[in-house]
C-alpha cells in the first residue's frame, strides 16, 4: 500500500512537471510571437509616418535643393545665404509684424469687428513662396506670400493671394 502510494505520488509529480514545462514553454513561445507581431506593427507604423512626413515636407525649403541653390551666389562672386539661418529670420520678421495695431499687413485682410488678423503659422515652401495661416480669433484664413531677400539682407514680402474661410 505504501509502495503504491509512493508510485502514484511519483507519477503525479512527473505529470505536474510535464504540464508545467509545457505551459511555460508555450507561454514563452506565445510571448515571442506577440513581441514579433507588435514589433512588426510598430515598424510598419514608423514607416508609414516617415512616408507621410516625407510627403508633407516635399514642399519645403529644407528639402528643396534647387531652392537652396538659389541662395548660393558664390559662383558669381556674391554672398552665400544659408537657408538654415534664413528660415527662422524670415519667419520671425513676418511674425513680428503681428504687433501692428491694425494687424499683420501680409494677411491680406483688414480688421473685422475691431479684431485684427495675425499670422499664426508659417511654412517657407521654397526660395520665393511662403504659406501662412492667420486668424482674428473668430475667422481663419490662409495667405500665399512672395518673399525677397535683398542685397542688404533685408526681407520684403508681397501678398500673392489670401483666402478667408467662412464661419
UniProtKB/TrEMBL annotation:
Domain of life of the native organism: Bacteria
Sorted UniProt keywords: Membrane, Transmembrane, Transmembrane helix
Transmembrane segments: 6-24
Protein name as catalogued: Hydrolase
Source species: Flavobacterium flavipigmentatum
